[in-house]
Amino acid sequence: MKKEFFNYTFIIVGCALMAFGVVGFLSPNSIAMGGTGGLAIIFNSLFKISIGILFAIINIPLLLVSIKYLGKYFAIKSTIAILLISAFIDTLSHFVSLEPLSNEPLLATLYGGVFVGAGIGFIFKGGGSAGGGTIIARIITSKTSLKTGTVILILDSIVVVATGFVFNNVELALWSMISIFITTKMVDVILTGRPNGRIVHISSPNNLEAIGLLINEKIGVNGTLIKGNNLSLTQEKHMIFVTVPINRLSTLRQLIRTEDTSAKMIVMDASEMLGSKFLN
I want to staple 38 with a disulfide (CB 3.0 to 4.6 A). Which of 132, 135, 159, 252 is the partner? Predict the structure, then answer.
């Protein structure tokens, strides 16, 4: 219960930070963020519908379609996050009437990227997702050999190109690219690690085959199951070696705690990953 309280606190704080970055810096300067958040900013310029409503309209159907790829609890937290982001954005825009904190493109890009990245990082830390590229990437990578990072990069590139066309300004597209880069780096800072994945070793005196199947089913990654002995050769040991996306670590940690209280879990940085199915 205490753990979930902190998780939802992280999600609420993250949603507020993300909304503040969008309303205070990015949207007033027509600078798009990555994924569906960027699409919401673009559509807002075209159709004059509030960014919060557009953000929810784009993401909620994606979540409903992708529940089997994300897992029920991850999808629930992500749905809550998306609704909160939408509510915070519209509250700051229409009720608080927050004025742009900077009309200078460089400052708006830098600080917008920092706040949005911090927000997404806290949402990930709480075990949820801000929707968008993550959801689409999970669906596509489950059907193809493309890596998750590759799909997200393609989606963000489409948003950047669309920004240049819609606003008829190449510079805005270039500013959007910088904003996306800063957002990505800020997410890594919040989650205390630069790579997109983490190498996880899970060891236990108990058989881990059932846990391995649950990891594959609920988190959507494959790994290696190893059987051996401790150094004194007095006890049989079982170990799982797996690489997990950063935003699924909380789900994995909770799964291990629930299924095997005697298991030990070691998490390490994955500085370089090769292979098309390494994270999928």
Answer: 159
Closest C-alpha to 260, from 212, 221, 206, 214: 206
Non-local CB neighbours of 132 within 8 Å, separated by 6+ positions = 34, 35, 36, 37, 39, 58, 59, 62, 155
The rounded Cα 189 to chain-centroid distance in angstroms is: 13
Tens of pLDDT, residue by residue over 178-230, are: 988 888 788 877 865 455 678 889 988 888 888 888 888 888 788 888 888 87
Give 261's strand partners.
Answer: none
**237, β-bridge pairs:** 228
- Count, in order, helices (H) and strands (E) of the chain: 11, 4
Query: Is residue 186 a contact partner of residue 179, using CB atoms and an 8 Å limit?
Result: no
Q: For residue 271, report the phi and psi dihedrals to the nearest 5 degrees.
A: -75, -25
Q: Evaluate if pTM is beyond 0.70.
A: no
Give whole-number Cα distances, 213 to 68, 79, 171, 217, 224, in Å: 15, 26, 48, 6, 11
The pairs formed by 137-142 with CB atoms below 8 angstroms and a separation of 24 or more are 138/66, 138/69, 138/70, 138/220, 139/65, 139/66, 139/69, 141/280, 142/69, 142/220, 142/280
Q: Tell me the chain's radius of gyration from C-alpha atoms.
A: 20
Residue 144: which of 246, 242, 276 has the closest Cα?
A: 276
Residue 90 near residue 50, CB atoms below 8 Å: yes
For residue 111, what pLDDT is reported? 95
- Residue located via tokens 């998750």: 148
pLDDT 10s digits, 29-46: 989 888 888 888 888 888
